[in-house]
Write a sequence for this structure.
């Protein structure tokens, strides 16, 4: 969570993770603290718990600008910007808190903390021990009529007091269906939180002899952390409250052991204390470092000894090559160094090793060697045609080369080098007064500035106060500027974003540039001309012409949402675009979106819309003509008024629905095993065939426009026609000229009908409420087809599986065999009856 917070070891009472807050008594010189203390911004995450400070070398707060940004810190209205780190607030200035009593005394959490985020809404967290029944909750608007404390939607009933007292006046409700009702009387929501789990210190290291860095694990349920640092030597305790999971403790004692602990905390209380991590500060560095030149290329480094230190580290860095230091480890308090170059600057750092051979922070000393004398005279010859100057100077004994620097009024610096006594400086700027210095160089010495200097003036600058004027409906751009002194004429130039150049030569202070192109970015410059000299080119001003018209506009609807997505080719010169969509529902069908890219999404477009699309390109000042795009269509609406009717005596269901202006529809039924049957149509009804008899189906319809399908309609339950009778048998009695048809009945049937059809389509039938009936008027020697169906009082069933019956002695395709005898006085024929 960001960089570590920084803590100077503020003395204060150490605090453990007890559930009920302890009694706190202020120590002398410090304010009493309770829980996370309030800092300058009111943020408990940037606070300290003070204790009695040590005078002089006591703890310090690191300035706020040295700390990482804190995401909880915020200024209250009227509060000045803090200029240092977190500060302690006296208890008398702390705002009243529902969990805090008088200064120095804290109450155990026992109620709900009200934390309003807006004037009309409030969120509330129930602290540990708060009964949930005492905290009302927000109720969705659609459930308001059944809520015990609320009336009809838009009007709340009087709310009864928690102890059964008089009811409060009913507040007004605002809100929409599906959202939480918002009351003028704020209604809180209670949530319960748990004490966070413990965090553990993962690393601790000494940064210097007076500071340490502590890092610990991050606990997601913790809102902030308490860091306690205990000195083993002085028994002092230092506290820090932070939302980070690392901290720097500064201004400690050198070579000292410190025990570190971390507590997690949230509104429910403190977590358990972490395991201890002991950190030892480094040994203090040496003091009074001095360097003395002892010979050519030699120097002696001397420092004061540090108590109990047996080994020192010396780092010597050439400031021209600071990343390649030379290191020495010595047991003495002095060091002779060789290889010191003249005209060089060295940074010499001396550190102390502790008993673990860890070096302390260094004590730095800057050592410089210079030997060359400055030049005695400098002169300049300036030429305006080349914007250059020839610099001359006197020779210096021992110098191998020279560098000449010209410093302008605007801070720019130009340079030339030479091994002689002159060089030319080019690229001089107009209207500048240059100050020229010459530096002699020997053995890579570059740091000796000349104490003798001279100045010169350059040619006047180009015109200033450049202005552009453009009409969005015109192709003309007017470029103007302010006159300059001693100028014969001006040369203005325009270059567009495609590199096309237009020039204008004038004695006036303006030019008209015509025939510009849409969507181009034009850049204008001008310079002044006097005799054989001309000024430098002016600064650049730019302007855009009216954006070009976007091309290839395509708009499509998202099948799974209410989003309409438009895409187009980027138009030259356009910085942003606006898409307008007009639907087929009048004033309620106007939608708009804006984008800086080549696409734009309009949300909230209802289903079944046919939209006219317009697009306009904009820059910062102008708009392109509005362009008409192709018509767009949203996802079809879900079919309504869906109904399903079973087909009597068939294996089919007929479904109907109301028109939602879709191209075609798909009706589907699904049985309990998930088997689907469907039909497609462009009409408003459809018959689904091939279904199982006496089976419950769930039916629904979707609409489609070949690009998107609507959501499934409401589900309709339907049962198919009853299954036909089974185990049908038939016997032919030629003597009686009739057939006996029998079957297995089903409960709940009102009647049965047996039908017999011969080869000539002659039809005979009989009906019965039992499981058999006789069909008269039959003839022998015919092949009959026998079926049976039943009727439940509303709908006949499908016919049974057909069986064949003939007067011959064998009937084929049987499922059952039956033998019939007509009587002793008649000729007996045997018949086999079975299904087709």
């Amino acid at each position: 969570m960001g960089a570590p917070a920084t803590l100077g070891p503020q003395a204060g009472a150490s605090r453990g993770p007890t559930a009920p807050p302890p009694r706190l008594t202020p120590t002398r010189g410090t304010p009493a603290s309770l829980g996370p203390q309030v800092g300058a911004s009111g943020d408990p995450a940037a606070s300290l718990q003070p204790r009695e400070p040590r005078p002089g070398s006591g703890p310090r707060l690191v300035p706020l600008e040295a700390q990482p940004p804190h995401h909880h810190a915020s200024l209250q209205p009227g509060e000045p910007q803090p200029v240092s780190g977190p500060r302690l607030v006296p208890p008398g200035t702390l705002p009243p808190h529902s969990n805090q009593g008088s200064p120095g005394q804290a109450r155990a959490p026992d109620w709900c903390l009200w934390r309003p985020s807006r004037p009309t809404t409030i969120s509330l967290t129930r602290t540990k021990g708060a009964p949930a029944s005492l905290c009302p909750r927000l109720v969705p608007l659609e459930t308001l009529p059944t809520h015990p404390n609320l009336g009809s939607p838009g009007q709340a009933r009087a709310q009864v007091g928690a102890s059964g007292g008089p009811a409060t006046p009913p507040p007004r409700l605002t809100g929409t269906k599906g959202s939480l009702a918002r009351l003028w009387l704020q209604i809180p929501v209670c949530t319960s939180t748990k004490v966070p789990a413990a965090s553990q210190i993962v690393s601790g290291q000494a940064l210097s002899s007076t500071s340490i860095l502590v890092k610990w694990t991050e606990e997601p349920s913790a809102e902030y952390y308490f860091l306690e640092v205990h000195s083993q030597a002085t028994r002092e305790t230092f506290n820090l409250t932070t939302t980070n999971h690392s901290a720097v403790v500064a201004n400690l004692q050198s070579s000292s052991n410190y025990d570190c602990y971390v507590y997690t905390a949230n509104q429910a209380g403190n977590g358990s204390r972490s395991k201890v991590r002991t950190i030892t500060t480094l040994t203090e560095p040496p003091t009074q470092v001095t360097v003395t030149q002892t010979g050519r290329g030699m120097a002696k480094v001397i420092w004061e000894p540090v108590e109990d230190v047996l080994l020192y580290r010396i780092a010597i860095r050439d400031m021209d090559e600071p990343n390649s230091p030379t290191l020495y480890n010595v047991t003495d308090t002095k060091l002779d160094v060789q290889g010191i170059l003249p005209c060089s600057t060295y940074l010499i750092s001396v550190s102390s090793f502790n008993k673990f051979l860890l070096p302390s922070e260094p004590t730095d000393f800057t050592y410089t060697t210079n030997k060359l004398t400055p030049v005695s005279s400098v002169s300049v010859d300036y030429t305006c045609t080349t914007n250059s100057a020839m610099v001359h100077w006197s020779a210096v004994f021992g110098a191998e080369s020279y560098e000449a620097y010209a410093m302008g009024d605007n801070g720019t610096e130009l340079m030339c080098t030479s091994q002689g006594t002159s060089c030319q400086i080019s690229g001089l700027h107009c209207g500048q007064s240059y100050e020229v210095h010459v530096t002699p160089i020997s053995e890579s010495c570059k740091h000796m500035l000349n104490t003798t200097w001279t100045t010169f003036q350059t040619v006047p600058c180009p015109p200033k106060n450049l202005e552009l004027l453009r009409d969005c409906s015109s192709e003309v751009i007017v470029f103007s500027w302010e006159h300059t002194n001693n100028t014969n004429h001006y040369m203005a130039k325009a270059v567009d974003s495609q590199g096309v150049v237009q020039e204008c030569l004038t004695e006036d202070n303006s030019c008209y540039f015509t025939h510009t192109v849409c969507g181009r970015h034009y850049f204008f410059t001008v310079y002044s001309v006097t005799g054989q000299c001309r000024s430098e080119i002016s600064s650049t001003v730019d302007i855009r012409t009216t954006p070009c018209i976007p091309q290839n506009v395509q708009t499509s609807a998202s099948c799974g949402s209410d989003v309409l997505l438009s895409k187009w080719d980027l138009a030259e010169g356009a910085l942003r675009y606006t898409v307008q969509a007009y639907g087929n529902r009048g004033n309620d069908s106007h939608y708009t979106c804006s984008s800086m890219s080549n696409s734009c999404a309009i949300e909230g477009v209802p289903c079944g819309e046919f939209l006219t699309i317009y697009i306009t390109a904009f820059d910062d000042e102008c708009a392109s003509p509005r362009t008409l795009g192709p018509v767009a269509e949203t996802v079809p609406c879900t079919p309504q008024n869906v109904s399903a009717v079973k087909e009597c005596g068939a294996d089919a269901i007929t479904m109907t629905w109301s028109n939602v202006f879709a191209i075609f529809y798909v009706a589907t039924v699904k049985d309990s095993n998930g088997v689907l049957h469907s039909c497609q149509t462009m009409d408003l009804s459809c018959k689904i065939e091939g279904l199982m008899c006496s089976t419950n189906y769930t039916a629904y319809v979707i609409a489609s426009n070949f690009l998107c399908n609507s959501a499934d309609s409401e589900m309709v339950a339907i049962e198919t026609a009853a299954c036909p009778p089974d185990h049908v048998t038939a016997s032919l009695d030629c003597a009686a000229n009739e057939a006996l048809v029998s079957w297995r009945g089903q409960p709940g049937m009102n009647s049965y009908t047996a039908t017999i059809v011969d080869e000539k389509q002659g039809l005979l039938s009989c009906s019965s409420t039992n499981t058999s009936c006789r069909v008269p008027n039959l003839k022998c020697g015919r092949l009959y087809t026998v079926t049976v169906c039943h009727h439940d009082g509303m709908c006949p069933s499908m016919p049974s599986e057909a069986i064949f019956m003939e007067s011959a002695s064998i009937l084929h395709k049987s499922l059952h065999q039956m033998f019939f005898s007509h009587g002793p006085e008649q000729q007996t024929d045997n018949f086999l009856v079975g299904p087709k």
Remarks:
- The two ends are 82 Å apart (CA to CA).
- DSSP finds no helices and 57 strands in the chain.
- Residues 227 and 262 are 5 Å apart (CA to CA).
